[in-house]
Amino acid sequence: MEILETALWVLLVLTSFVIIGLVLIHRGRGGGITDMFGGGFASGVQSSAVGERNLTRITWIVGTVWLMTIVLLGLISRFQI
């Protein structure tokens, strides 16, 4: 059980950093943090509506994995003997 818990913690850290990166490269609508860090970085991904839509889908998938990881870690800690 300890191996599973360690793997879930690693997955949680990795998905946390991926979510931060994905949110930062989303198209800024008001000149916010995306422009502050050089908004041109994601211009290739966001050049079309399809790119933005795919970026949103990937963000939702990673967010769902992140949330499920937190729930599993909570269940493990709750029912651990």
Key phrases:
mainly alpha
Give the SSE string: HHH
Round the Cα radius of gyration to an integer and report it. Answer: 16 Å
Main beta sheet: strand number and arrangement?
A: none
Please give the count of helices.
3
Mean pLDDT: 83
- Helix content class: over 70%
**Number of separate structural domains:** 1
Strand content: under 5%
Shape: elongated
List the helices and strands and how they pair.
Elements: H1 2-25, H2 33-36, H3 49-78
Helix pairs in contact: 1-3
Q: How would you explain this protein's 3D organization?
A:
The protein is mainly α and 81 residues long. It has one domain. 72% of the residues lie in helices and 0% in strands. The radius of gyration is 16 Å and the shape is elongated. The mean pLDDT is 83.
Task: Give me a quick take on this structure.
The protein contains 3 helices and no strands. It is mainly α. It has one domain (2-24, 44-78).
